[in-house]
Design a protein that fits this description.
With about 210 residues, this protein is α/β, with parallel strands linked by helices. The chain has one domain: Rossmann fold (3-Layer(aba) Sandwich), CATH 3.40.50.150. The chain is about 30% helix and about 25% strand. The protein is built from 7 helices and 10 strands. The strands form 2 sheets. The chain has an 8-stranded mixed beta sheet, sandwiched between helices. A two-stranded antiparallel ribbon has the order 1-2. The longest helix is centred in the middle third of the chain and has 11 residues. The N terminus is likely disordered.
């Protein structure tokens, strides 16, 4: 489920990889069992397999993305995440990933809970609606359109946009431990005023 246009970073093997995928890779252990929800064409799982020799599995709803992932050699199940992950046993994965798909989920609370049931750790990334360029567009009377939010108001798949502060409060209210958080803009780390200056938030989570 690809929801944005992404810049790329060149890895040592000269293979182009998205900056957020490179950072996610730092949170995944070698030979881990990984489930990627909304895996798109399987690019992230392919990268993690190359970097860490993981055992990767994907879930994808879109017909074309599912077919492309299959053609790319990814083990992928076609299903709608909104129905939950009841087909997966508790703690059956080391890491469950939801990359830039959270904002398109109707049952946001449910999918995060399911991720932490199925996985020992969860990685969630999403566009930060509190980013200053988004705020500026709202002040000008328009819904934000950007690299991380590329859709117009009338054709967007996004239904639950949130800020970094919103997600921090969500984790606190649901007894979710934030193991680590990274915020980036155009592939660069943002440490100062991340809720204002960062356009992409990345969380590594664990159930308390």
């Amino acid at each position: 489920m690809s929801l944005m246009n992404h810049p790329t970073t060149t890895m040592k093997d000269n293979t182009a990889i998205r900056p957020d995928f490179a950072l996610i890779s730092q949170w995944v252990k070698p030979q881990a069992k990984v489930l990627d929800l909304g895996c798109g064409d399987g690019e992230l799982l392919t990268h993690l397999h190359r970097q860490h020799d993981i055992r990767g599995y994907g879930v994808e709803k879109d017909d074309q993305n599912w077919l492309t992932a299959m053609e790319n050699g990814v083990d992928v199940l076609q299903m709608d995440l909104e129905v939950g992950l009841s087909g997966f046993e508790d703690q059956s994965f080391d890491t469950v990933i939801l990359s830039q798909t959270l904002q398109a989920m109707h049952n946001t609370e449910g999918i995060v809970k399911e991720m932490l049931r199925v996985g020992r750790e969860a990685i969630v990334t999403f566009p930060n609606f509190g980013y200053w360029r988004n705020r500026t567009q709202i002040l000008l009377g328009q819904m934000p359109v950007s690299k991380t939010l590329p859709y117009e108001w009338y054709n967007t798949p996004n239904v639950h946009l949130c800020t970094i502060h919103d997600f921090d409060a969500f984790c606190q209210n649901h007894d979710i431990e934030v193991i680590e958080r990274k915020v980036i803009t155009e592939g660069n780390m943002v440490n100062f005023m991340p809720n204002l200056l960062g356009n992409l938030a990345m969380y590594r989570l664990h159930k308390k």
